[in-house]
Give the backbone structure.
Amino acid sequence: MLTIGTHMSIAKGLAKTAENVVWMGANTMQIFSRNPRGSNYKVYSKQEIEAFQKIRKENSFGALLAHAPYTMNLASGQERVYEFACTVIREDIARMDEIGMENLVFHPGSHTGIGIERGIENIIRGLDQAIMGKEKITVLLETMTGKGTEVGARFEELKAIRDGVKHPERIGICLDTCHVFAAGYDIVNDLEGVIKEFDRVLGIELLKAVHLNDSMMPFASHKDRHAAIGEGVIGMEALLAVMRHPLLKELPFYLETPLDDQGHKEEIRMLKEELGRKI
Ligand SMILES: [Zn+2]
Ligand SMILES: [Zn+2]
């Protein structure tokens, strides 16, 4: 079974969003765990959570993914930025676990000058005060492009974070096709080599989700600009090869392409047709 969905707005509530997933021909979704550029979040009523759970169950949704806000920087050396990030990750792991999301992904962060090692130490400390070890949810580190002082563009950096925490069993990886390509992993000409490298450094079993995006920016550019599938420099064939790969094909795929709901519906229809697979 193919598990595919897109990043969705939850402006109309959880249940309504789940209905929208069905309309889209999808069977999973990614949502922001709170306002992506601020600090606000909604408290969901018991009825709303139950209505949401009912729809996901009736429609056999695959693993669902929450995305932490972009303003959360756990690698920061600035006290106020760091304290804020610690609060957000702690609250959002608990909140997303409670509503039944399988995974929560976050950008490891930018060290903004304190150096990659200290950045990684901060991330580890931040995760340790947030993960209690009894959660069902898995926290995913996203592969990044390495723009500026960003942590997480190399598989080794993600490995160092996971190895450093008290509860590594609660940590997995989300591979973003646009980000890894821009970071210098050539999924167009050497997908097999990239997967082998991921497996060598991290272990392929840690890969829990794929962000399926084309890239507007060239290979190894360290720039993060998503393109619609087939409209960037990665291209349709390379992205289909990712989805067909025997070690990746059963993972959940999440589109983060710059399209509206109607556009995403069409993109999902096209991918299902190209792959000859159903949800
Ligand atoms: Zn992301
Ligand atoms: Zn992504």
About this structure: The chain has a mean pLDDT of 97. Residues 67, 107, 142 surround zinc ion (ligand 1) (CB under 6 Å).
